[in-house]
Structure formats: structure tokens, C-alpha cells
Amino acid sequence: MRNSDCPFPRFLIASLAICSLLAVSVSAGESSPPWLAGTKDDFQGFDRYTFRFDGVTSHMVVPRQTAEGKPWIWRARFFGHEPQTDKALLQRGFHLAYVDVAGLFGSPKAVQRWDRFYEFLTEEHGFSKKPVLEGMSRGGLIVLNWAIANPQSVAAIYIDAPVCDIRSWPGGKGKGKGSPADWQKCLEVYGLTEEKVDTAGIYPLDRLKPLATQHVPILSVCGDADDVVPLEENTRILEHRYRELGGPIQVIVKPGVEHHPHSLKDPAPIVEFLLQHVSFQPQP
Questions:
Q1: Is 177 inside a domain boundary?
Q2: What's the CATH code of the domain at 158?
Q3: Could you give the CA distance from residue 233 to residue 109 in angstroms, rounded to a whole number?
Q4: Three-state SS string across the chain, please?
Q5: How far apart are CA 181 and CA 176, in angstroms?
Q6: Domain count, the chain
Q7: What is the largest CA-CA distance in the chain?
Q8: What is the tens place of the pLDDT at every residue in 52-88?
Q9: Nearest one of 229, 143, 134, 138 to 185, comparing CA atoms
Q10: Band of residue 25 on the pLDDT scale cut at 50, 70, 90
Q11: Which of 62, 132, 143, 194 has most Cβ atoms within 10 angstroms of its Cβ?
């Protein structure tokens, strides 16, 4: 067939070819997320990539086969400590993500960094819009504060011996030991003075209504002998207030256990709780 007989002008054919090349380029970019350029090592038998995000250390652990919907568990603080739950979800096709917020005590600065990380993973890399949040000890502050600010963006929350009020830890204003050095850093990042601590109204225990309205399920695992983050000053108040607001919460109390060890030797109750609130297609 002569060029003059072709139903499509040559410039249109050239344009379609360029579009095809661009599509291939975009697809290739999506298959090579930036964490793959980081340092690779092993985490519980899975590939972990350590990279920089927002100027701080971040981790991404990749499942062998990603579950449908690209579910993920978002770890707060103490990455790698008591990894039973993380490993179980990786085996089911979840990604495991972490961005460092050390020294920020769940303050607005920490929440803003998590906002940027969430947008990075969900908008740029197609991760589920509703991750599972995991926070141990002081990690409870950022998990709860970010969830309160973004209740529509959370599938479920797992907290473990969680700090729910900075006055308990690091403040040591109740029965807990507290940490004077951390307390001063905490006041600084929150922009508070000792005189304004009790009237600030910025602590998770005082702001649970958005979570309850969205019916975000919470699981807290605690030891009843914890003298660092006392159960009565943290999870028990959380449990009482959240239930009063109509929020779903489950508490697992470990008799005679202090602040450590975290988690459960057999993480099955934690994993089952989380999975029942996540919509995804598990891997065989």
C-alpha cells in the first residue's frame, strides 16, 4: 500500500509511537521504586532496603509476592524489635515500611513527616490507602496522633505497651519512672512549658473522637506490671474513653509482665486481629 493510501497521516503514526515509548518508560519507572537504590540486606528472610526519605533513615521490606491491593504495615520506632507480627504479614504479601521520627515524640513535626511518607507510598507507588499501623512503647504517640489526624486512612492499629500521654512518659507525672532528659526534649519539640502541660489538650487520650467516629479498630498488648509506661495511665484510660465514644478496642494483658518483652511469642492473636480489618487477597 502506498503512503498516500494509508488511513493515518505519518505524523499521527509518529505521535503514537512516541506515546508508546513514554508509556513503557513510565511503566519501567513504576517497577523501580527509589528504595531499590538503597542498601539491601536481609530481614527475617525478606529483602530489606534502607534508603533516605525526608533526610532520615527509612526502611522498606518487600514480600516475595505482593498481595492484591498492595497492603502494608507501617512500623513506628524500634524497627526490627520483636518482629513476629511483621514477619507474619510479610509472609501474607504485605510490605513493611518505616520512616524515622526519633526524638519527635509524636509531635506535629512527626505527623507532618508521616503525612509526606504516606503520600509518597500511596500516591506515587500505589500502596493501599489504608495501612495497618504498629507502635511499640513511645511509638504509640506517633501512631495515635497520626491516626487521629488521618482517621479515614487507617485500616487498624496495633499498639504495644504504648505511650498514650507524654505526661506519663517521658514526663513521669504519675506512677511511671519517666525520663528527665527525654522530657526536656519532648517539651521542646512540642513547644510547651511545664506550666502549660496540663492544659495543652494535645495528647492522644484527649482527642480520640475522630478515630471512634471512623470506627478504627485498636488492639493494645500490655504487661500489667509495667512501671515505665503504666497500664493504668495509658491503655486503661484509652480503653475506657474509646469505648465510651463507641470505638472498637481490644486489650490483651500479660499478667506479671513489665515493659519488656513486647508483643507475644506467638503473634497469631495480633495477626488475626489485623487481618480481619484489612481487605486484601492473601498469598498461598
A1: yes
A2: 3.40.50.1820
A3: 25
A4: CCHHHCCCCHHHHHHHHHHHHHHHHHHHHHCCCHHHHCEEEEECCEEEEEEEECCEEEEEEECCCCCECCCEEEEECCCCCCCHHHHHHHHCCCEEEEECCCCCCCCHHHHHHHHHHHHHHHHHHCCCCCCEEEEECCHHHHHHHHHHHCHHHCCEEEEECCCCCCCCCCCCCCCCCCCHHHHHHHHHHHCCCHHHHHHCCCCHHHCCHHHHHCCCCEEEEEECCCCCCCHHHCHHHHHHHHHHCCCCEEEEEECCCCCCCCCCCCCHHHHHHHHCCCCCECCC
A5: 15
A6: 1
A7: 90
A8: 999 999 999 999 999 999 999 999 989 988 899 999 9
A9: 138
A10: very low
A11: 143
Asked whether residue 3 is assigned to any structural domain, the reply reads no
pTM exceeds cut of 0.70: yes
Predicted confidence at residue 280, as pLDDT, reads: 58
Would you say residue 19 lies in a domain?
Answer: no
Strand pairing class (218-223; 156-160):
parallel
Judged against a pLDDT cut of 70, whether residue 21 lies above it is answered with no
Summarize the confidence of residues 184-190 as an average pLDDT: 96
pLDDT at 27 over 70: no
In a domain, 70, yes or no: yes
Q: Give residue 171's domain range.
A: 34-275
What type of residue is 186? C
